[in-house]
Structure formats: C-alpha cells, structure tokens
Amino acid sequence: MSTPFRELADEYRDRVYTFVYYSLRNREEAEDITQEVIVKLWRHRDEIDPQKLTPWVMRVAHNAVIDAARRQRTRSAVIAEGVELDVAERVVAAGSPDTDRSVRSRELRDALENALATVDEPYRSIVVMREVQDMTYAEITEALEIPLNTVKVYLHRGRRMLRVALRGKV
Fold this sequence. Notes:
Order of helices and strands: HHHHHHHH
Number of domains: 2
Mean pLDDT: 80
C-alpha cells in the first residue's frame, strides 16, 4: 500500500467503522464492512473525484450496511443505534466529578442509543451522518443520493423523533 493511500485509508477507516458499528451494533460485521469499503476505495481510487471522496466513501458504507441488514433479515438493524461515548460525554455537564460524570455519560449514551433505535429510516441515517459523523448537508445529499431539501426535512424530522423518544429520559 502506497503511503498516500495508507493515509487516505487511515483517514476514513475510523469514520466508516464508527458509522457501520453504530448501524449494526456488531463489531465483527463492522470490521468486515470497513475492510470491504477500504478495498473498494483502493480499487476505485483513481476514479473518485477528490472533492467527492467523503460522500463516496459514506455512500459505499451506507450501502454495505443495508446489504448486511438484508442478509441478517433485520430491517430494524439498518442504521445506527448509538452515539460515540465522547459525544455523550461532551453533552454531560463539565462540572461533575469524574465518577458521576462517567456514570451519567453512560446513562446518557444508553438513552441516546435506545432513542435512536426508535427513529425510522431514512431519518436515522441522516441524523447519524450529520450529528455523529459531522458530515455536511452536501456530503449527506451525495452519500444518500437524495435532494438537499429532503436531507434538511428528514434531519429535522429525525431530530424531532429523537427528542420525543428522549423526553423524560435525560
């Protein structure tokens, strides 16, 4: 593997793994799919517009998650049931003692995971890509191949579903 591609693979490996893991909640499946995405990136590296690399990678990851979910015959496992611990910790008040903070972080993460699991597709994918993966609207639009206004509407609806699911739990 050449150094530039190694750097490219390293740059996207964590992003893809995080997305896939929180989509399927299965470490082994996430590792396999991440490897598949990196191999596809290697095969198509010369064909991909560098400006559209992130959406391309995330579209491939999203499609791989859908394929894996179909294989598992569990539509409810299609996209992210969780958020990263460090994201949850940032939401928790900074003034808490470490142990309190850790417990509250875990409780918050669990509440967010459970709430996100109740959000239907495609809203869940869009919320995860925007809020967890920190993708731009344009990147999400390209990754999911849906219009920008649809992304915005679905994100708004997904956030609203998440708020309703979290009501009284956080």
